[in-house]
Amino acid sequence: MSMKRTNVYADPADLVIIKEAAKRRGISEAEIIRQGIHLAAMANRVWDEPLFSRTFEGPGRTLSESEVRDTVAEAVRRETAPGSGSAA
């Protein structure tokens, strides 16, 4: 993977923690900083599609635990029934 060099200002206390962590983990300080940059990038990413692209009809209230269990069990039975077209 190609990387690009950049310069950033960091709090000296954070750099001490990074140095200690790198030594403890046996990896470079740069690797810890790259991991942090990746986490920051992913936390701020705007996704092309919504997290939930499907909507489901329901009773308009929160289902009880037994209602959820029964609904899921019924869906599994439909999916695994002979002739349902799903691969096992």
Notable characteristics:
3 helices; 88 residues; mainly alpha
Helix-strand blueprint:
Layout: H1 12-25, H2 29-43, H3 65-80
Helix pairs in contact: 1-2
Instruction: Report the span from N to C terminus.
Output: 38 Å
Give the class from helix and strand content and strand pairing. Answer: mainly alpha
> Total helix count?
3
Give the biggest beta sheet.
none
Secondary structure: number of strands: 0
Tell me the overall shape. elongated
Which consecutive residue ranges, at least 5 long each, have pLDDT under 50? none
How is this structure best described in words?
With 88 residues, this protein is mainly α. It is built from three helices and no strands. Helix 1 (12-25) packs across helix 2. The mean pLDDT is 88.
Short description:
51% of the residues lie in helices and 0% in strands. With 88 residues, it is an all-alpha fold. The chain starts with 11 loop residues before the first helix and ends in an 8-residue tail after the last helix.
